Amino acid sequence: MAGMHKPPLPTSFTRRDWGRAALAMALAPWSLSAQQALGAPDDAKRAVRWQNDPFALGVASGQPRADSVVLWTRLLVQEADAALNAQPLAVQCEVFADEALRQRVGQWTVMTDAQRGMSVHVEAKGLQPLRHYWYRFTCGSATSPVGRTRTTPVAPDKAALLRMALASCQHFEQGAFTAHRDIAQQDLDLVLFVGDYIYESSNPRYLVRAHQGGVPKTLEEYRARHAQYKGDADLRACHAAHPWVMTWDDHEVVNDYANDRDQNYTDPQVFLRRRAAAYQAYFEHMPLRLGPDAANPANMRIHDRMAWGQLADIWTLDNRQYRSYHACPDPLKGGGRVVMGCNELADTQRTLLGMDQERWLTQGLNTSQAAWKVVAQGTQMSSTGLATPMGRSAFTDGWDGYPMARERFLQNIVDAQLRDVLVLGGDVHMNVAAQLRVQPNDEKSPIVASELVTTSITSRGMSETLAAQIRSNNPDIAHLRPDERGYTLIQITPGGVQSAFKTTANPAQSGSVFATQAQFAVKRGVAGVVKN
Fold it and tell me: How far apart, in whole angstroms, are the C-alpha atoms of residue 532 and residue 528?
């Protein structure tokens, strides 16, 4: 069949073969090619008899392309099956062209083991563009739930429509993941998740349900935190319903970290070990391609570019790993804070993305032939500063803390005469629609791009008092509401962008119903958001 890929199976698979397989995985524990090269005979697969469901964390797909998509699962080895952790396990992945699972178009057998957290990543190739596929995994006596995914249009295709949900900030303890249930029921091409997939921290004031264990610092602890989140039925349903395009923010590691520095000014070598554990656990639990950096978990690349035919190019950026340290830090506690009169903010060498990623983004934007240039990143780009007797305030963890980097990004839009640039973000736990200018809030500075920021899935927002101050001090902001939880529906066509902030009351409850808080549009060729 078209797209079928069956690695040759050895006629006999001895203990020595298993040893060689384990050695190969130990030497290259994140190598997808090594996984797919290792076959397993049918009798080895039949030999695994599970007492508990190893697919309790569900299935997921991500990073779609015109001819491929990444398919994911992770075997959850519970106490009754604990002995299986000591050996490599063969997992079969099947892809079908129909929901009834009668038209199989691809089959892969891969290996996994405890060194990679029993995670499975399959890059399913040989698919057709712009169509749905269904997939499942099997391991021994167990079969996973069925997931549905979708490929992108081919590059020359003048696609007429892209439908996606924008989401971020899902603190397990602060509400139910009902938004994911709602997203799963929508007719979408993909989910765009822009950070804070897990939270390492707790806040007893807003506790709705509890994390298991303390603050994670080791690989096993981060794995356990991810597994608890994936245990949520609504989150699993959303992953199974749509392919995801993803990036991270800070809470996947620790709040407000910048490069190799955390809030406690921990020795960088110590912190980098923690960051490596967090990054590895993240990749183990997400439908992401395992690139050349994957063998070094301390430095994993997540920024990426995806084309939706000629309709849109989408960049997903990394705001954490390469950034300059926070400006004017508190000597006793690192991380972001509100500052006034901080001269360091004017330093042109400071960067939120790292200079290499900045250049990569600039080159990509300047050469893109897509109708829409969509820049998806972790936070709000428009300014939220307040006028004070000591000067305008700036929160140093966001783009206000890196104003020269923001200016470089927006000035390039002007210099390169780019049109139809849409910036998407999360992090701030509020819905925001805003105009982007090289000089924020200055009517003499033309609007050059449009911004939409989604509220949180569950994480609590700021007070209305502070929100009102931000609105009154920042005329570029057309809409800002922190009181509700949810996600944002975005529809892109050649003629424009339509968005709807879908929300429910705080905190999100298991029976929550989502309504439209506000709708905004961006017209092709005209920078700036307009309320519908």
Answer: 13
Domains of the chain and any CATH numbers = 15-150 (2.60.40.380), 162-531 (3.60.21.70)
Count of C-beta atoms within a 10 Å radius of residue 442: 11
* 102 in Cβ contact with 108 (< 8 Å): no
Tens digit of pLDDT for each residue in 371-393?
Answer: 999 999 999 999 999 999 999 99
Closest CA to 110 of 21, 239, 48, 3: 21
CB 139 within 8 A of CB 48: yes
CA distance 48 to 55: 14
Q: Which residue type does 29 have?
A: P
User: Does 486 score more than 90 pLDDT?
Assistant: yes
Bridge partners of 214, per DSSP, are: none
- Residues with Cβ within 8 Å of residue 173, at least 6 apart in sequence: 199, 202, 203, 206, 207, 208, 209, 210, 211
SS (H, E, C) 151-184: CCCCCCCCCCCEEEEEECCCCHHHCCCHHHHHHH
Is residue 458 within 8 Å of 507, Cβ to Cβ? yes
Q: For the segment 26-73, what is each residue's pLDDT rounded down to a tens digit?
A: 333 333 333 343 344 454 445 799 999 999 999 999 999 999 999 999
Distances (CA, A) of 442 to 50, 204, 436, 439: 64, 41, 10, 6
d(CA 8, CA 109): 10
Residue 477 forms beta bridges with which residues?
Answer: 434
Whether pTM > 0.90 for this model: the answer is: yes
Q: Which residues pair with 423 in a beta bridge?
A: 375, 451
pLDDT at 138: 98
C-alpha distances in Å from residue 446, one per residue of 199, 371, 399, 474:
38, 21, 19, 15
Nearest to 428 by CA among 449, 403, 402, 456: 456
Kindly state the DSSP code that residue 499 receives in the 8-state scheme.
Answer: E
- How far apart are the C-alpha atoms of 243 and 286, rounded to whole Å? 11
- Distance separating alpha carbons of residues 77 and 91, to the nearest angstrom: 14
Q: What is the per-residue pLDDT across 148-180, written as a single tens digit (0 to 9) for each?
A: 999 999 988 889 999 999 999 999 999 999 999
Sign of CA dihedral 402, 403, 406, 407: negative
pLDDT in tens, 317-350: 999 999 999 999 999 999 999 999 999 999 999 9
Angle at 221 between CA 299 and CA 233, to 5 degrees: 100
Phi, psi for 306 (deg, rounded to 5): -130, 135
Looking up tokens 């809409």 gives: 479
The 3 state secondary structure assigned to 237-268 is HHHHHCEEEECCCCCCCCCCCECCECCCCCCH
E strands, 43-175, in order: 59-62, 68-74, 89-96, 104-112, 119-125, 132-139, 142-143, 147-150, 162-167
